[in-house]
Design a protein that fits this description.
Elements: H1 3-16, H2 28-31, E1 42-45, E2 56-57, E3 71-74, H3 75-78, H4 82-96, E4 116-118, E5 128-130, H5 145-149, E6 171-172, E7 175-176, E8 179-180, E9 186-189, E10 195-202, E11 205-213, E12 222-228, E13 233-238, E14 248-254, E15 257-265, E16 282-289, E17 308-311, E18 318-323, E19 329-335, E20 340-346, E21 350-354, E22 361-369, E23 375-382
Parallel strand pairs: 1-3, 4-5, 6-10
Antiparallel strand pairs: 2-3, 7-8, 8-16, 9-16, 10-15, 11-14, 11-16, 12-13, 12-15, 17-18, 18-21, 19-20, 19-22, 22-23
Helix pairs in contact: 1-4
């Protein structure tokens, strides 16, 4: 396998096991840090000696055994395609955790329907493969895959829930200036019917948010609900069931105030044409633009974190920044659309920033302390 194929296979397997307290790695040094009964290796090989004619092989229920006996994925039959090997790896690891084949009628391996197939069937040719409990008609194996994987016998549980599901426990979106970065706003839908709630405050205007599952081979069909502070539903947005990696886009005008974004996983169609929300699980990120509700930078109020003041505000020709701190600061100025138009550093107690060349309007100044990494954003009016 080449490096791209290895990466794709790892991405599939890592996403399949994302909901659980497991680490999928290709690094043997990392693997060896885990106790013998808390790890299992799967060997990808060109031979099929361990099970001639098969796509892979594993012993059922040996994940927690004190043994280094691996499971196997064979490229002799499936080839080295990342998609195929990734599906085999998840399937064989599933066996080590106690899972058996998902079939239908007389067939041992169910190859799925529409866009979907069970991981413990044969999902090589489907875009969406998930853990299953055979909710489709004439399924032969009604094991609850999620319950078995997270059982006490395996010593594997779910990941710790990363975000609350009430307004009191909602996670504030990390907003820098007016920008929402996907790398700073991530979550995992980690169990059936999990809901992750985020909050943000805006000064009003067009809010643009993209909520995206992993960029390829996602198991998570996203649903996003937008609520205002009074818990009134402002809009519901769902992902594309044909391609779970296409982001959900919210582009809506909002009044000033506080809002909540609820992220969850859903199903599509029926168990015979699609799938339920049972294993619609996985990682996602939130990015975009939120019109700021930052306070005005004034000459009177000294911000506690930075001991900084700015004047005059409104500004005409030149903005003066002063600090009583000996720390150094990075300063960025963005326009009302969130586009950064100026950046500099404050390395003394005094700095002048030219504004005569800038159009009249609202600007945002973001000040980050290089020592503490604390960051705050303030409004400036240019006349």
């Amino acid at each position: 396998m080449n490096s791209d194929e290895i990466l794709e296979a790892w991405e599939i397997t890592a996403e399949d096991f994302r909901a659980f307290n497991l680490n999928v790695t290709t690094n043997e040094a990392v693997f060896n840090t885990y106790p013998q009964n808390k790890r299992r290796r799967c060997v990808v090989t060109t031979t099929d000696t361990a099970y001639p004619g098969g796509a892979g092989f594993a012993l059922v229920n040996n994940f927690s055994s004190f043994s280094d006996l691996p499971c196997w994925a064979f490229t002799s039959g499936a080839g080295t395609y990342g998609k195929y090997i990734g599906e085999i790896l998840s399937h064989e690891f599933g066996h080590t955790l106690g899972l058996r084949h998902d079939g239908q009628n007389q067939y041992t391996y169910y190859s799925g329907h529409g866009n979907w197939a069970p991981i413990m069937g044969a999902g090589y040719y489907r875009n969406v493969t998930q853990w299953s409990k055979a909710e489709y008609t004439n399924g032969t194996n009604h094991q609850d895959d999620l319950a078995i994987i997270t059982s006490i016998a395996n010593g594997v549980g779910y990941r710790v829930d990363d975000h609350g599901n009430t307004s009191a426990t909602a996670t504030p979106l990390v907003v820098s200036g007016q920008q929402v970065s996907g790398s700073q706003n991530q979550g995992v839908i980690g169990y059936t019917d999990d809901i992750d709630l985020f909050s943000f405050t805006t000064s009003g205007g067009n809010v643009k948010l993209n909520i995206q599952a992993t960029e390829r081979h996602s198991n998570l069909l996203l649903k996003v609900d937008l609520y205002n502070e009074k818990n009134t539903l402002m809009g519901t947005y769902t992902g594309d069931p044909r391609n779970l990696s296409i982001p959900i886009s919210i582009n809506t005008a909002l009044n000033p105030g506080k809002y909540y974004v609820a992220v969850s996983g859903i199903g599509e169609g029926t168990p015979d044409t699609g799938y339920t929300s049972y294993s619609s699980l996985g990682i996602y990120s939130i990015s975009g633009f939120i019109p700021s509700s930052a306070p005005f930078l004034t000459a009177i109020d000294k911000h506690q974190d930075h001991k900084i003041r700015g004047y005059p505000n409104p500004v005409i020709d030149e903005l003066t920044i002063e600090t009583e701190s000996n720390d150094h600061f990075d300063i960025q100025i963005s326009n009302s659309s969130g586009l950064m138009i100026y950046q500099t550093a404050l390395t003394s107690n005094y700095l002048k920033i030219p504004f005569s060349d800038k159009p009249a309007g609202l600007y945002l100044i973001t000040i980050r302390n290089r020592t503490t990494q604390k960051e705050n954003t303030f409004k400036i009016i240019k006349k």
